[in-house]
C-alpha cells in the first residue's frame, strides 16, 4: 500500500490492508517489527519475540508483505524482516478518521483529528 495522500486510499485498498491485520498473530508480528525500527529483525529473532515460528510465521509474513506492510531481505544466511508500514498505517488511520462526525451538526472537539 503506497500512497502519498491518505485521501487517495480506496475503500477496497483499505479493506484489503485491514484484512492483512485481521489476525492477532499478524498484528503481533507487525507491532514487534515496528518496535524493532528500520533495521528489523532476523526471522529467528522475530519468531522468538512473538512466539510465532516456522511455516506459520512464513505464512503471516507473506500476507503482511503482500499488503505492503513489511519487507523480507536475505542478508547472508539470515532473512531480515522489517516494517515499512509507518506511512501506510498512518494513512489507514486518516482514512478512518477523516470523516469523523461528518453527519452531525456539532463537530466533536474531543475527536479533533487534524
UniProtKB/TrEMBL annotation:
SMART domains, per the entry: HTH_ARSR
Gene3D superfamilies (alphabetical): Winged helix-like DNA-binding domain superfamily/Winged helix DNA-binding domain (1.10.10.10)
Cited InterPro entries: ArsR-like_HTH (IPR011991), HTH_ArsR_DNA-bd_dom (IPR001845), Metal_resp_trans_reg (IPR051011), WH-like_DNA-bd_sf (IPR036388), WH_DNA-bd_sf (IPR036390)
Keyword line: DNA-binding, Transcription, Transcription regulation
Domain HTH arsR-type: 6-103
Descriptive protein name: Transcriptional regulator, ArsR family
Amino acid at each position: 500500500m503506497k500512497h502519498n495522500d491518505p485521501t487517495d486510499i480506496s475503500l477496497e485498498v483499505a479493506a484489503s490492508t485491514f484484512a492483512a491485520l485481521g489476525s492477532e498473530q499478524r498484528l503481533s508480528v507487525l507491532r514487534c517489527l515496528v518496535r524493532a525500527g528500520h533495521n528489523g529483525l532476523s526471522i529467528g529473532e522475530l519468531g522468538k519475540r512473538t512466539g510465532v515460528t516456522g511455516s506459520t510465521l512464513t505464512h503471516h509474513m507473506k500476507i503482511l508483505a503482500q499488503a505492503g506492510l513489511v519487507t523480507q531481505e536475505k542478508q547472508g544466511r539470515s532473512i531480515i524482516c522489517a516494517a515499512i508500514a509507518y506511512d501506510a498505517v498512518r494513512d489507514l488511520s486518516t482514512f478512518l478518521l477523516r470523516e469523523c462526525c461528518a453527519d452531525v451538526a456539532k463537530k466533536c472537539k474531543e475527536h479533533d483529528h487534524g
